[in-house]
Design a protein that fits this description.
Number of helices of chain D: 6
Order of helices and strands of chain B: EEHEEEHHEEHEEHEH
Radius of gyration of chain D: 17 Å
Shape of chain D: elongated
CATH class of chain D: Alpha Beta
Chains: A alpha/beta (534), B alpha+beta (243), C alpha+beta (164), D alpha/beta (180)
Number of helices of chain B: 6
Number of domains of chain D: 1
CATH class of the largest domain in chain B: Alpha Beta
Structural class of chain D: alpha/beta
Largest sheet of chain B: 5 strands, mixed
Largest sheet of chain D: 5 strands, parallel
Structural class of chain B: alpha+beta
CATH superfamily of chain D: NADH:ubiquinone oxidoreductase-like, 20kDa subunit
Order of helices and strands of chain D: EHHEEEHEHHEEH
Oligomer: heterotetramer
Chain lengths: 534, 243, 164, 180
């Protein structure tokens, strides 16, 4: 199959839709499902006019706090009408409104900054296509990047395009994707692997889940392109077992892609073959660390091993292995289709493209957003997020999960990119953004994350295993107002040792929430101490 | 004229360890080269003849050109590498790591059968740990005396996994493994049942010999009487790996 | 020299073993499919008992201690049966900030169980999860598979009290 | 250091077996030499029962297990310029701290009820109250020099005192260790 044939196929799918004037899209991602999207979808299917209209379940539309969300989209490309907090009994009203005046009482304004200030690349199909439909993906141009790569580009050209794009790993580390790919490509080996890290474990982060639930083919396509570029023939998607819906949709997508010849042997009648399997995690945060993840795929305890050797050199079963995260792979197809230069034109000097964030905590609009790198933190929180509810004051935003840190109001005007966040003692991480108001205690937040790291420590290396436990004990003591100055000094010393000597990223970054709250909110710690000596 | 000798597969490199020029094969690790040259680097999980585990972090060293500390046991030497094994900072970190170990379980040296022959005890002394700043946890751990010949005292285990590795890699029984996660980790035999009931244990005693502390000992030993002998290991390791 | 490896007999005539066998067969009885096999046991039986662990170990030709080590490393694997009802309190950051701790304390206070424990009458298991991904509904609870959003301790205890 | 400028030394015996004090006595004839250099102003080994206001060196044997131990540790810290933890009990809690694995009540029951055939009862009068947890001396007051060992050898103690007399802060890790 070449590009023309694929385009023809897509054209065919779209042609079958002539006669459909409106599409009713019901968000069926996990959050809306738990607020009752299922009955809404059923109700709309029943109530909608039988001709000229199609009702379908789609992936995440982003504004989870207003779910279940429904969009009525005219197929001529006009602006969709968005509805919030839809209940099953609203189905009739919405169905009757199609093609006439919208139901104002449920309507979300189209110019809501939450939507208008975003720029969607990764999420462009999210909330638009039916994630369970292979044809639906084809209709929006799916797999054309892969077919283009396989039929019109050499692996080196694919690598060059990804390198030009300046894409950096979206899992947290920010390692240049092109560099990672070329390292694996250069390894002389018969067998290589591509792994998609979907073990999204940061508490308060759900970007990867939403991408997999909304547009699973996009991730598979990115993996296949990567495999072609680096010379791999087998791939694994390592997903948390806690995401049953994502797993189901991913498995469906793999099955359908394979049946249509877009995965498996001789993809699209080329010499390139690529098999993908899903492997489930089983509740271990540390498996997000790449060497632990590989151990888990190998059926072992998910314990990291020292690096080097890096997976690119000796990974899964000792073979060169490329590991990227879900969002990284989801960026690949658009980069190939629109060019690395285009992608590099978005974002900042050293952080290109967009980033998906999961907004949560005490903020008006919680949900999933995608903004260009370099967007001001204040815009994300106050404009897109709608600020803090209930008239309370903003206190801090936590990024990067248990490896990250908290930023106070004084730094709200920084651009959100890898380097600015790092300078302030936190990290981009995978994209979790938890907003806290004045009622949150920073010592308690640090304790919360330390408890997380302690329970998630694999127990292999001493500094992380015993150090996180000791630090947690001290934080507990301080939080209870029983800490001394000596406790605080010991805490800081342990932070340094655990950071410097731990075996893997989990331990090396476990002190970050403490260090960053000490840096920006030291007075809260001091106040707790003062209470004891008084 | 004779032809030049065929290029050997492995090259020889030169590097500096604590300012001292040394040469090494490029497939050697820093700790191997350091010990060949009588530069002591403390370690606990590393044991010549077993696979590298890289967990105790006591052997971390500084390498010029990188901010990260690297474990000497798992890092290969490279040409021109400059290694510092014993800076003030490394000494401080090692002291803290040893302290964390002492505080984690109940290493009461004075009443230990391995007193005087214990690697952890010696390590504490060499690293200058004369007291433990971090609070002792004093959690309760079991003692398993069910085996006819040997005893397992979890109070004194440092989770170095030497027993697990020697049992798997040399004896081939894989009776031992580690269960649980984080501070709940514990060495186990089979399905975490009493050692004496193990169906896979051959009672060879290699685990006891490689155990650095008094966690695995022979029955019938009193305070300070348990000595261990590691001479068998390099020999058996070579036999196993066909060298 | 080769030593023949025998496939162990299925522990009982319980049909659920077919699911476990299918999972192992799908992966060619490869040792790296251990976690998949354990998932299948848990799916079929609800938890991993000693019989199942031994059976999986023998089927995949793995040491018992290794299987036990893996089964206890991953927190999703349960070695004891769950109670009739399972209440999973999400302790992700968003839920924590919005009071998940209070939900757990409420259950601890009323039922005397901590996360990971089951009441003595086997009626209720309390579990905690690291982010179920419903941050918009914080604090969230998954009760017998149903997601409950924006919970207060009173709501939750009332609902638990109404269970059989 | 001149003869009239002798070092004053106080020693205290908290929860321990007194073995460290015995080891002190094991210095044998070196005690005579030592007697020229130091004054023991307060100790279970001598008659003086009042701790002077200002003492140069305080030496503590034993862990902090009771209210009285705590009081003594604080007293020595207050009156001594330099405080030494002598022996494993003082340095790391050692055997006395092994009871920390149990609740205090269980410890009492074990010692005064379960293993007693005649009039099992918990002593309450005339004995200092036990603390819930046994701690090393540095767990309650700042300590300047640590001399581990069970007991530290007479040589180790001699080394430590000799260094102090010479005005140097000793590093006992070269001559003793935990359990030694």
């Amino acid at each position: 199959m070449n590009l023309d044939e694929l385009n023809e196929m897509a054209e065919g799918v779209r042609a079958a839709d002539t006669g459909i004037a409106h599409e009713v899209r019901v968000c069926m991602a996990a959050s809306c499902q738990s607020s009752g999207a299922g009955p809404v979808l059923d109700g709309l299917r029943e109530a909608a006019p039988s001709t000229g209209c199609r009702v379908k379940g789609v992936g995440c539309m982003g504004l989870c706090s207003a779910g279940p969300l429904v969009a009525v989209a005219p197929m001529d490309g006009g602006e969709p009408v968005l509805y919030r907090d839809v209940k099953a009994e609203d189905a009739q009203a919405i169905a009757c409104s199609i093609g006439t005046a919208p139901v104002e009482r449920l309507r979300l304004p189209n110019d809501l900054p939450f939507f208008s200030r975003q720029q969607k690349i990764v999420l462009e199909n999210s909330g638009v296509i039916d994630p369970n439909s292979f044809k639906g993906y084809i209709a929006v141009g799916g797999y054309s990047a892969m077919v283009q790569a396989l039929t019109e580009m050499t692996p080196a050209e694919v690598l060059a395009e990804v390198t030009t794009s300046g894409l950096r790993g979206r899992g947290g580390g920010g390692y240049p994707t092109g560099l990672k790919w070329s390292t694996v490509a250069k390894m002389p080996a018969e067998q290589k692997f591509v792994i998609c890290n979907a073990d999204e474990g940061d508490p308060g982060a759900f970007m990867d889940r939403a991408i997999l639930e909304s547009d699973p083919h996009r991730v598979i396509e990115g993996m296949a392109i990567a495999a072609y570029a680096v010379g791999a023939t087998r791939g694994y998607v390592y997903v948390r077992a806690e995401y049953p819906l994502a797993v189901e949709r991913l498995k469906t997508a793999i099955r359908k892609a394979k049946r249509s010849g877009f995965l498996g042997a001789h993809i699209c009648d080329t010499q390139f073959s690529f098999e993908v399997e899903v492997r489930l995690g089983a509740g271990a945060f540390v498996c997000g660390e790449e060497t632990a993840l590989m151990a888990s795929i190998e059926g072992l305890r998910g314990q990291p091993r020292p690096r080097p050797p890096y997976p690119a050199e000796a990974g899964l079963w000792g073979h060169p292995t490329l590991i990227n995260n879900v969002e990284t792979f989801a960026n690949i197809a658009p980069i190939l289709l629109r060019g690395g230069e285009w992608f590099a034109g978005i974002g900042t000097e050293r952080s290109k493209g967009t980033k998906v964030f999961a907004l949560a905590g005490t903020i008006r609009n919680t949900g999933l957003i995608e903004v260009p790198m370099g967007t001001r933190l204040r815009d994300i929180i106050e404009v897109i997020g709608g600020g803090i509810p209930d008239g309370r004051a903003f206190k801090a935003v936590q990024t990067g999960g248990p490896s990250g840190g908290c930023l106070p109001a004084a730094h709200l005007d920084i651009p959100v990119d890898y380097d600015s966040l790092r300078e302030l003692g936190t990290i981009m991480g995978s994209g979790g953004m938890i907003v806290m108001d004045e009622t949150s205690s920073m010592v308690d937040v640090a304790r919360y994350f330390m408890e997380f790291c302690m329970t998630e420590s694999c127990g292999k290396c001493i500094p992380c295993r015993a150090g996180t436990q000791q630090m947690h004990d001290i934080l507990k003591t301080i939080a209870k107002g029983r800490g001394t100055r000596a406790d605080l000094a010991l805490l800081e010393e342990l932070c340094e040792v655990v950071q410097a000597t731990s075996l893997c990223g989990l331990g090396q970054t476990a002190p970050n929430p403490v260090l960053s709250t000490l840096r920006h909110f030291r007075v809260e710690y001091e106040d707790k101490l003062a209470a004891t000596s008084a | 004229m004779p032809l030049p000798a065929p290029q050997p597969q492995v090259r020889v490199v030169t590097l500096k360890i604590d300012g001292q020029d040394v040469s090494a094969r490029e497939d050697e690790t820093i700790i191997e080269v350091a010990r060949e040259n009588r530069v002591p680097i403390p370690s606990l999980c590393y044991l010549e003849g077993l696979s590298v585990w890289g967990a105790c972090r006591l052997c971390v060293v500084e390498i010029a050109g990188t901010d990260r500390l690297l474990a000497a046991c798992s890092t290969r030497v490279t040409e021109g590498m400059q290694v510092i094994t014993n800076s003030e900072r490394l000494q401080r970190y090692r002291r803290t790591i040893v302290e964390l170990l002492f505080a984690e379980r109940n290493h009461v040296c004075s009443v230990c059968v391995s007193n005087g022959h214990c690697e952890l005890q010696t390590l504490a002394q060499r690293c200058g740990v004369d007291h433990v700043k971090v609070p002792y946890r004093h959690a309760r751990y079991e003692v398993d005396s069910s085996h006819d010949l040997f005893r397992l005292d979890h109070n004194r285990c440092v989770l170095c996994t030497r027993c697990v590795r020697v049992c798997d890699e040399i004896e081939g029984a894989h009776t031992w493994d580690v269960m649980g996660r984080g501070t709940d980790c514990r060495v186990i035999t089979d399905l975490a049942r009493p050692w004496g009931d193990s169906g896979s244990c051959t009672s060879c005693g290699k685990c006891v010999q490689v155990c650095p502390t008094g966690a695995l000992v022979r029955h019938g030993t009193s305070v300070g009487e348990m000595t261990k002998d590691l001479k068998f290991l390099p020999y058996l390791s070579r036999r196993r790996h066909g060298q | 020299m080769s030593v023949t490896r025998h496939k162990p007999p299925t522990p009982s005539s319980d049909k659920r073993w077919n699911l476990v066998n299918a999972a192992m067969r799908r992966n060619g009885y490869a040792d790296h499919a251990l976690i998949e096999a354990l998932h299948s046991v848990q799916e079929a039986f609800g938890y991993l008992d000693e019989t199942a662990l031994v059976y999986v170990a023998e089927s995949l030709d793995l040491p018992l201690s290794k299987v036990f080590g893996v089964a206890t490393f991953y927190h999703l694997f349960m070695l004891k049966p769950k109670g009739r009802h399972a209440c999973v309190v999400c302790t992700g950051t968003a839920c924590y900030i919005k009071g998940a701790g209070g939900l757990i304390e409420g259950i601890e206070g009323r039922y005397g169980i901590q996360p990971g424990e089951t009441t003595e009458d086997n009626a209720l298991s309390l579990l905690s999860a690291r982010c179920v991904g419903a941050c918009g509904l914080a604090p969230a609870v998954v009760l017998d598979g149903d997601m409950l959003g924006k919970q207060t301790s009173e709501d939750l205890l009332a609902r638990l009290g109404g269970l059989d | 250091m001149s003869a009239n400028d002798r070092v004053s030394v106080a020693t205290a015996w908290l929860d321990g077996c007194s073995g460290c004090h015995m080891s002190f006595l094991d210095m044998d004839e070196r005690l005579i030499a030592l007697a020229d250099k130091i004054d023991i102003v307060y100790s279970p080994l001598v008659d003086a029962k009042e701790l002077p206001e200002q003492v140069d060196v305080g030496i503590i044997e034993g862990s902090v297990s009771s209210e009285e131990d705590l009081h003594k540790a604080q007293l020595l810290r207050k009156h001594c310029r330099l405080l030494i933890s002598l022996g494993d009990c003082a340095v790391n809690g050692n055997v006395p701290a092994m009871r920390n694995q149990f609740k205090l009540d269980a410890v009492f029951d074990r010692a005064y009820r379960e293993n007693v055939s005649f009039q099992p009862q918990r002593p309450t009068q005339g004995v200092p109250a036990l603390l819930e947890r046994v701690r090393p001396v540095h767990g309650v007051v700042a300590v300047d020099v640590f001399v581990p060992g069970c007991p530290p050898s007479a040589d180790a103690i001699w080394y430590v005192l000799s260094e102090l007399i010479e005005g140097r802060i000793p590093d006992p890790s070269q001559v003793t260790k935990f359990g030694a």
